[in-house]
Amino acid sequence: MPHPTRKYDRSLNSEVERLLYQCEVVEMDAKGLVAPLSETQINWTPEPTRWSVGQCIEHLNLTSRKSLPLFEEAIERGRKDGITGDGPYAYGFFSRMFLRMVEPPAKLKVRAPKPFQPGPEYAAGKVLEVFLADQQRTAALLRAANGLDLARIKVPSAFSNLVKYPLGMGFWILFAHERRHIRQARELCRHPEFPRK
User: Fold this and answer.
1) Percent of the chain with pLDDT over 70
2) pTM, whole model, 2 decimals?
3) Please, what are the domains in the chain?
4) 55 — phi, psi (to 5°)?
């Protein structure tokens, strides 16, 4: 599937522009993968210990539900404190290492904490509808972050308040995590026993 083409928006910081493109690509990939699936297909799994396509997407929805308010708070705090900057931004070793670990294909498999574990079954359209709405909210947050110093403002991880990333890196990690689970869902669709309808 070809990636979306977009006109470069010169009113945006170059990193915000690249992150918005990532957001569009992830949205398009999820839509192309999930929209054609039936109820049977979206809930199919080859074994009880593996997530279905619906569970992969719902895990992302649960992650967004926790992550996006944290991004919103960080952006509001950055605006209030006047932490602005045009970039380019430099990110530290720890953040870059974590991004590499999250990028697909999965190099390290970790069980999702209980609040991020999806339930057993999903309606084909609903789980995608929530995901696409969250992508639009993420895009709006990126635009709201334009002009802020994406390296100096920190955002806590949705998985642990003890871990904080630079705001820009938080967005990169969010999209890498989404690509990772969309890839996982795509691999399920390629399974030889995946239902044809």
Assistant:
1) 95
2) 0.92
3) 14-189 (1.20.120.450)
4) -70, -40
Residues of the chain with pLDDT under 50: none
Residue with tokens 């809930």: 43
47: region left, alpha or beta (phi > 0 left; psi from -120 to 50 alpha): beta
The token pair that represents 80 in the structure block? 């209030």
- DSSP-derived letter for residue 10 is T
Q: Specify whether the CB–CB gap between 96 and 32 falls below 8 A.
A: no
Euclidean distance between CA atoms 87 and 95, whole angstroms: 17
Compute the distance between CA of residue 129 and CA of residue 68 in angstroms, rounded to an integer. Answer: 17
Residue 132's Cβ-count burial label (10 Å; 0-12, 13-18, 19+) is middle
Q: How many alpha carbons lie under 13 Å from residue 92 in its C-beta half-sphere? A: 9
Query: What does the pLDDT read at residue 8?
Result: 66
pLDDT of residue 3: 65
Do residues 136 and 65 lie in contact, with contact meaning Cβ atoms separated by under 8 Å? Answer: no
Q: Do 33 and 128 form a contact (C-beta atoms < 8 A)? A: no
DSSP 8-state symbol, 166: E
Residue pair 34/185 in contact by the 8 Å Cβ criterion: yes
